[in-house]
Amino acid sequence: MPTRDVLGARLAFLLDWLYPPRCRHCRERIAQDESYFCHLCLQQIRLVSHPLCTTCGRPFLGTSGADHLCGACLGRAPRFHQARAWACYPSEEGEGQPLREVVQRFKYGRKISLGKPLGRLMARGCEEFLSAHPADMVIPVPLHPKRLRWRGFNQAVILGREVGRSWKVPMDPLILLRSRETPPQTQLAEEERRMNMRGAFSVNPAKSVAGKTVWLVDDVYTSGATVNECSRALLKAGAKEVYVLTLARAV
Ligand SMILES: [Zn+2]
Ligand SMILES: [Zn+2]
Question: Which one is the CATH code of 78-250: 3.40.50.720, 3.40.50.2020, 3.30.465.10, 3.30.1330.20?
Fold first, then answer.
């Protein structure tokens, strides 16, 4: 009688045959599902690599030199301890930007099934950073209830859940609350973004983060204003350290 492993392998083979793994962007067939993108699409995704800002994780141009603080972090130190992202997020729409297109499909096209591969890519791709800063809990950046109702899901929760599963760290989406609705940030300058976000988050009084090290998860790091305000609330409630993890980082 075949063992469970053999049955599992046969089932995987059958599923592969019925639903061959495909690139999440161009739908090209791929050999291994765990890569999620084909070679061509993957080549077009610029991963975050050293040298980068030791605090906010912004990658510097060029591939040589040591990590150091960027001008923005030197001028005003963020509230969180450090931030890292898996890949760079191009600021403009355009051809050949697989990650941007896939993230847009995930968020605005409500293609929730993309959350799992994207969450795993960030959990795996930021291994160096995450293993250096073990955490007690994963906390996703919350959406305002009104936007949550409109979108139907919070992308940060889905990504955070995968990160938590991959690293066996519990995720709690009910700790951080969005206490105030904020207008969309896209048209705002950096200083305006900061003001826009002030006091937008609080910690659920029924929960405790005292003494905890937190991985704060979001999809895209743009100016850092959102994760900065979340960090302020978490640290004010007694969190020990906040490390920010995002799938992508605007460059
Ligand atoms: Zn592809
Ligand atoms: Zn920086």
Answer: 3.40.50.2020
